[in-house]
Specification:
Largest sheet: 6 strands, antiparallel
Low-confidence stretches: none
Mean pLDDT: 94
Structural class: alpha+beta
Radius of gyration: 23 Å
Oligomer: single chain
């Protein structure tokens, strides 16, 4: 995992060395192990490296076949691709070298790659620059129009820092963020900066878009209809994915919660590793939310894993929250950024790679909202039918425009009602919230996050399962639970779980009046909401619904201070927001 950036240049355009240096500085946290550049008449490429595979010869850019490549991520089937290309004289052991040659030989090469990636390729023979992103959107990539051509980067903040884009904010997108927790589609909150869509291959010629091959949804494969046979097949496909995701030349561990998904990853890592797995779990200083540390420790003990627990306190959160929010330059107001950031900060002392259970719910139908959406009419309940601020009489924009991205994803989804609900989340919630959170919070500390459930072959298997093996007995992830029951019963896969939560409402309630005043003063809050009603809302933060709304307003105030105004984050929450008092 690394940082990539650069420009596809207009004919005759030149790029100042200072611009490339600014891009490299802005992405240094993503790649603290080295940096490289490449400049041609078509492109300027910048790479910052986090060395995970091929530590000795894997520096980028990579060159070959008349092209140069920079990449962010991992190509897990690197060995298999090399074996399938015996005619290629590979120069390095980098997992990104096979895509360099495949891109020259195959017009539609992305389906051959099994991994997480964002790639930029300067092809001298064809005279084009290509940008590509993995089908789930695990690895980020952004673009914008700039004076010298089309600029791109792993993070919007790099484009801003290099002066290639402006901090002009789209207020309508902020309303979507507040209502939904994340923003959907290609447009970001920064006017003019767009996400390269997951699964897309964008070809740029003369500095402008020439062709965009859009995302091709992963089609269902073949899955046994019989439960026993499906369990055998599930074991095989998951074991293969975890084995691939463990390929690394540096130490790795995992994030372990009290849930099904991470327990399944742990069970397979324990099977595949000769040494004990290193697992990390977070908990909180409040008993208002479930503490998963004891359950996680019992699960870890059952397979002989080394287990490290961390406690996140209210004081820690107020001290570091400005930096945590600053990491989310493409904002997702998911309070799970708090434990994810602290876990990454702790894990970096021992490992450079962490496996995570992200994606298990989306692949195997874990969320209750899927089952609610799949009920027969008139009992079905559409997902996210209500925004966080509906009925609070607080936002200036009370329209329904924030639902448009969800509607488009819903209309594009196919399959059974249950499958459509899953596909909607795979197109929106997964890349625009969960994976964004994982990428930014881990890369803030130079740690690579890997997601074995979000694998092409796992998805083909999961999408082919009949609904009765996805959800049964009022529970989602039925087949995965059955598998875990046999392989790691200590995880208690059929026990009712309380769900992972963060005590932000309780923390905010303890500082309600003070925080409410500071948040209400923030200029961005006055743009989207009534400041007087904001103050009143913070006085009711102990109520869960009000507490969630308060958290999102606090997130927005901190986010705008850093990314809207370009402010520093070298203080705690109260110091940062108090600067404008």
């Amino acid at each position: 995992m690394c940082g990539i950036a650069g420009l596809a240049l207009k004919p005759g355009a030149r790029i100042a060395p200072e611009t490339l240096a600014a891009l490299a500085r802005a992405l240094a946290h993503r790649g603290p192990d080295g940096a490289g550049t490449h400049v041609s008449e078509r492109a300027a490429l910048v790479h910052t490296r986090l060395a995970i595979v091929d530590l000795a010869t894997g520096d980028q850019p990579l060159f070959g076949a008349g092209a140069a490549l920079i990449g962010n991520g991992e190509i897990y089937n690197n060995r298999e691709l090399r074996a399938a290309l015996p005619q290629i004289p590979f120069r390095t052991g980098s997992d990104c070298e096979p895509p360099l040659h495949l891109a020259r030989a195959e017009a539609d090469f992305l389906p051959l790659l099994r991994g997480m990636y964002a790639l930029a390729i300067d092809d001298s023979e064809r005279g084009v620059v290509m940008l590509a992103r993995d089908p789930f959107g695990i690895k980020p990539l952004y673009r914008c129009a700039a004076e010298p051509g089309t600029a791109f980067a792993s993070e919007p903040q790099a484009l801003l820092a290099a002066g290639l884009a402006t901090r002009r904010i789209d207020t309508a997108r902020l309303v979507e963020l507040l209502q939904l927790q994340f923003t959907t589609g290609n447009a970001t909150v920064f006017s003019g900066i767009e996400r390269v869509p997951p699964g897309a291959l964008l070809t740029l010629r003369d500095g402008a878009e020439a062709e965009l091959l859009g995302h091709k949804p992963i089609e269902p494969g073949e899955a046994p209809r019989d439960e026993d046979a499906a369990l055998v097949a599930l074991d095989a496909v998951l074991a293969q994915s975890v084995e691939l995701h463990q390929r690394s030349d540096v130490p790795y561990g995992m994030f372990l919660s009290g849930g099904i998904d991470s327990a399944a990853i742990l069970a397979l890592m324990a099977r595949l590793n000769e040494t004990p797995v290193l697992a990390f779990t977070a908990g909180f200083d409040r008993d208002t939310v479930a503490d998963e540390r004891d359950d996680a420790e019992a699960t870890a003990r059952a397979v002989g894993a080394r287990h490290e627990r961390i406690e996140i306190t209210e004081a820690m959160t107020w001290r570091h929250l400005p930096a945590i929010v600053a990491a989310m330059d493409d904002p997702a107001a998911d309070y799970a950024i708090i434990p994810t950031w602290f876990l990454a900060r702790h894990a970096r002392g021992s490992v450079k790679v962490v496996l995570s259970g992200e994606g298990g719910d989306e692949m195997f139908a874990g969320y209750g909202r899927y089952r609610a959406a799949a009920r027969p009419w008139p009992f079905a309940r559409p997902m996210r039918a209500r925004g966080a601020f509906d009925g609070l009489d607080l936002l200036r924009d009370r329209g329904e425009g924030w639902r448009d991205g969800l509607k488009r994803a819903r209309q594009a989804a196919e399959g059974s009602f249950l499958a459509r609900a899953q596909r909607e989340d795979v197109a929106t919630w997964l890349p625009d919230d969960l994976l964004l959170k994982l990428d930014r919070c881990l890369m803030a500390h130079g740690v690579e996050g890997r997601t074995p459930f979000l694998d092409r072959e796992v998805a083909r298997f999961a999408f082919a399962l009949p609904d009765r093996l996805r959800a049964r007995r009022g529970l989602g992830k039925y087949l995965l639970r059955k598998w875990l029951e046999a392989n790691l019963p200590a995880a208690r896969p059929f026990a009712r779980k309380q769900g992972f939560d963060v005590p932000v409402a309780a923390w905010i309630a303890g500082q309600g009046q003070r925080l409410g005043e500071l948040v209400a003063r923030a200029p961005v809050i006055a743009e989207v909401a009534d400041p007087a009603r904001v103050r009143d809302l913070f006085g009711r933060a102990a109520d869960r619904r009000a507490g969630v709304a308060c958290w999102r307003l606090l997130f927005l105030a901190l986010w705008h201070h850093r990314h809207g105004l370009g402010g520093a984050v070298d203080g705690d929450v109260f110091e940062i927001l108090g600067e404008r008092a």
